[in-house]
Amino acid sequence: MAKLLVVEDDEELAKLVSGALQDSQYVVDVVHNATDAKAYLKSVTYDLLVLDWQLPDGTGLDICYEYRRMKGAGGVLFLTGRSEMGDKVSGLDAGADDYLTKPFDMRELMSRVRALLRRPPVVQYKTIVVRDIELDPVEHRVTMAGAELKLYPKEFSLLQLFMLHPKQVFSADDLLDRVWPTDSDASIETVRQTILRLRQKVEREEEATLIQTVRGFGYRLEP
Fold it and tell me: What mean pLDDT comes out for the span 171-186?
């Protein structure tokens, strides 16, 4: 049974969200400030965090950063009134997996929660190695020839998927379903641009192409 932490300073909203989650048979802890959230995260393992952005004593952004630094591998969903694109990008870059703005329909929240919980668990918590690239799925860290690469979360997720399934061809629609399962704004062009940025970071001109385009079918990683 999945265990979730809801961090929301609006106590009435927190009660509604936690009630809906409990009705779906999830185990839910609720806190209303950053201090309590950080204390819970140090002692309890969660499958998913539902984070408000603005809290009385800090921000959900700080909680997300610290959670990832602590090797927290559960999903992170921001639930916030901040709707600016810059805020959304900041949240995702901090390590969040999804972002839902208030006001929202509870059915959409539950759908996004289910989608995040359906993701496969981090595989055996082991470093994945292809060529001279090493990916640590717990620390969310990638190195190439020993030098750390700075990847955005979706670039990391794409690379992890390819490295786990070398030589397997993924269509753009496959990648949308696996890497952007709840992002209604994502498109085929989103996939193309993310792969382009990822290639610029992980490929060298003197080597064979790592992430190859299979015309008419999609993309694959060539180890």
Answer: 86
